[in-house]
Amino acid sequence: MALQRRMLLAQFARQFRPDPAQLPGLRQHVGQTVVRAGRGIDGHAAHTAHSGAQALQVGAGLLPNVVLMDIGMPFMSGHEACRRMRQQPWGRGIPIIALTGLGQHANRQLTEQAGFDAHLVKPVDMAVLRALLSGGARKSPVGGPAA
Predict the structure, then answer these.
(1) How many beta carbons lie within 10 A of that of residue 33, not counting itself?
(2) Residues 49-100: pLDDT tens digits?
(3) What is the pTM of this model?
(4) How far apart are CA 40 and CA 22, in angstroms?
(5) How far apart are CA 58 and CA 60, in angstroms?
(6) Is the torsion defined by CA of 26, 30, 33, 36 positive or negative?
């Protein structure tokens, strides 16, 4: 029997999501779309964490094959969580993909410096995500076009 691939989705917890009325132009949050789609994308089972610290804890037990990480999480940013994941044996060789509403060159540089393999701008183009999950995530250009 083949082992199922495991995806860790680290995203804003609901209680920390800003009120869209307070932030005009806030992009649609990708989390629930990815969780639903993640159960079927390339056979990955989706598991969630709602903060950077929780992502580290869940990742250590789950040993994911890929991580989708929201950058703007409370208490520990996605950048810091990625840096810490890369220090763990289980996090050194897996694709870690940044999910963010920020797509400027400086934002992409920060994700690359933190150790992310790809930078996707929300709302995420599911075709691009599927392509990354099927093998293109390991060192796809972080500075490429907004997806």
Answers:
(1) 15
(2) 888 999 999 999 999 999 999 998 878 999 999 999 999 999 999 999 998 8
(3) 0.76
(4) 34
(5) 6
(6) negative
